[in-house]
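Subject — a protein and its fold
Fields — amino acid sequence, structure tokens
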Amino acid sequence: MPASSRTSRTTGRRRALGAAAALPLLAVVITSCGYGSEAKDDKEKVAVKGAPIGGLKEVRLGYFPNLTHGTALVGLQEGQLQKELGGTKIKSQDFNAGPDEIEALNSGSIDIGWIGPSPSINGYAKSKGKNLRIISGSASGGVSLVVNPKKIKNLDDLKGKKIATPQLGNTQDVALLNYLSEKGFKVDASSGKGDVTVTRTDNKVTPIAFKNGDIDAAWVPEPTASKLVADGGKVLLDEKNLWPDKKFVITNIIVKQSFLNEHPKVVDAVLRGTVKTNKWINANPEKAKAAANTQLEELVGKPLPAEVIDPAWKSIDFTDDPLASTLETEADHAVKAGLLDKPNLKGIYDLRPLNKVLEAEGQPSVDDAGLGLK
């Protein structure tokens, strides 16, 4: 292929990813506003009382209705987050995938969010390090490649099949593209066409597409993965088995940089809430699972059945550690796929507020792998 063609093709891929990060997902997203579900005042499970922190009456939080965002689900349901925020009221908004949430952060629709590493990397790189900071980890694991066992029995059977991911450029999309590349399959990242067809499908719709035979497999987070298994799918690969020590960041907590600068005490309060939530989750796994399911029921209208939530919950590790070294590896995967120029991630982390909270809670500090502010 001539060099000019290669350059054009690479540029097209990057423009496609930029479009995914800059525009809301238009097809089949069951939402009531442009970026995700309508922002809402959360039910007062813990009373909003006292003076607003620093005079800020409201903080806007974004997250996904995924179990990999269990810290947010539980923290909202059990009230640890609102308790720490006192008189500053939480307003929350849920999203299907990371690029939409990044746009909401950029536009000022949310202040703090739970999100995967790939959109964090892309958002940071595209703004030249000016729009966000990662301030904490939240979860590791909870992602699988689930296949139709009648069509796919092993890796060789993937050729010619359709595999769903939640959105172009989201964390699972990048992971799948990297995995296919390492196994010798050729796929154009922007179109998803090649030896394997990668189709970007809303997590809400993926189980329906799987049942109807419109897709043959999906690389998805929980609870979507376990929903597919309950519908007859089989886990061909648990992503944690691809990582050293079986740990990789699946969910970060990010903040708009201007918000961090203007409202540091509110950020501290949110981090106190997340640290206490994760501690409670790990000490009370069954109660935490039930709390997450109750919050999901409020979001989507019905709880997850036991055959879905039980295996899904077990596959996720909740941690304050952002597992920063794995973020850099995931950035390399996006570069390899042609979705991103090699980014300078120096400064993407500011873990100083988190480490201050961890110290106060008697817990060890966490490391930014040399990618933090000094």
